[in-house]
Amino acid sequence: MATIFDMETVALDDQDSALLIIDQTQLPGRREILRLKDQKSIWDAIYLLKVRGAPAIGVAAAFGIYLAAKEIDEDTFDDFYKRFEEARDYLDSARPTAVNLSWALRRMDSVVRENREKTVPEIKSLLLREANEIKAEDIRVCCSIGENGLKLLKPGMGLLTHCNAGQLATSKYGTATAPMYLGQERGYGFHVFCDETRPLLQGARLTAFELQEAGIDTTLICDNMAPSVMKQGWVDAVFVGCDRVAANGDAANKIGTSYVALAAKHFHIPFYVCAPTSTIDMACKTGADIHIELRPAEEVTEMWYEKRMAPEGVKVYNPSFDVTDAEFITAIITEYGVAYPPYDVSLKEIFEQKAKA
Ligand code: MRU
């Protein structure tokens, strides 16, 4: 599949001693690779959205906790694990909504706990192996979501997406964009509308950029234009990513997603959520249980512009995500197949297939 960069979004350097990320806050203007070694800079990169998107922050956290573990200079398991837990909890505190962050850290934690009889250097190399596997899995999962999503589409269709669930939000290919990249490779000739996605403009800065770089016919629209392009008949399906899906199918994704879902329902347009199973949180019963991250007011009042855009002192409400109720979701596309309502049944079946695989 077409990719935009020679390197993947998140990687370790050749010596396995630093995390390499594309600084997404600089895109599309500058392609700057950051080399991060210490925990504070990795935490900051996640919090400040230099690396962002649920799967990508999961992979970054896996590499991040490996780098932290590598620096722990203790010989006994108990001393090593105490410091490992501190680093794990610190990274986990960077962002609350995308479940992939805690999911990846839990996986890394299990590697440590299940190998307590091994030496500390052995545990460190197992951690490196697991982090690499989390990344490799992410790439395979995106490819499968691409295949499963493409089966729902026909050549020449108009698609709409919100925020960035693309290559930049994962290790490669993206989730919502994977069917678009695959379709491009197979001559489907899709036309994609990208919502700009206020306040941080992931749609304008990242999705429009990566789709255009891949040669896909791309049109950028402001968030408030989605119903208008739907009404013209230009959108045949909506594809979005997600940060956490509850067991009943309610899905948290970038703020504004639920408004796109409402419009899609009104115009009888299918609304698909692309969800790796790592983003489905079966321990979370409904969307009401999902912790929605609140971000700084400055993202709304002054970011990206030379001048402040709002009066000093105005109150700002800046939730980073919203929850789309399951009733507005036509289907949830996973790497194990497509789940349809009722999701409390179909998502369980997806996990049963995963357990057998
Ligand atoms: O705040 P962000 O930019 O990390 O939000 C990202 C999204 O909402 C994505 O749609 C989601 O993480 C899915 S990425 C495959």
From TrEMBL:
Sections of the chain in a coiled coil: none
Residue intervals passing through the bilayer: none
Biological process terms in GO annotation: L-methionine salvage from methylthioadenosine
Reactions catalysed according to its record: 5-(methylsulfanyl)-alpha-D-ribose 1-phosphate = 5-(methylsulfanyl)-D-ribulose 1-phosphate
Top-rank lineage group of the source organism: Bacteria
Cross-referenced Gene3D superfamilies: translation initiation factor eif-2b, domain 1, Translation initiation factor eif-2b, domain 2
Site-annotated residues for Transition state stabilizer: C163
InterPro entries: IF-2B-related (IPR000649), IF-M1Pi (IPR005251), IF_2B-like_C (IPR042529), Initiation_fac_2B_a/b/d (IPR011559), M1Pi_N (IPR027363), NagB/RpiA_transferase-like (IPR037171)
Annotated residues for binding of substrate: R52, G53, A54, R95, Q202, N253, K254
Keyword Transmembrane helix: no
Pfam family, one: IF-2B
EC number of the protein: 5.3.1.23
One example GO MF annotation: S-methyl-5-thioribose-1-phosphate isomerase activity
Pathway linked to the protein: Amino-acid biosynthesis; L-methionine biosynthesis via salvage pathway; L-methionine from S-methyl-5-thio-alpha-D-ribose 1-phosphate: step 1/6
Active site per database record: D243
Keyword Amino-acid biosynthesis on entry: yes
Keywords, alphabetical: Amino-acid biosynthesis, Isomerase, Methionine biosynthesis
PANTHER family, sorted: METHYLTHIORIBOSE-1-PHOSPHATE ISOMERASE (PTHR43475)
Similarity field: Belongs to the EIF-2B alpha/beta/delta subunits family. MtnA subfamily.
Function in brief: Catalyzes the interconversion of methylthioribose-1-phosphate (MTR-1-P) into methylthioribulose-1-phosphate (MTRu-1-P).
Designated name of the protein: Methylthioribose-1-phosphate isomerase
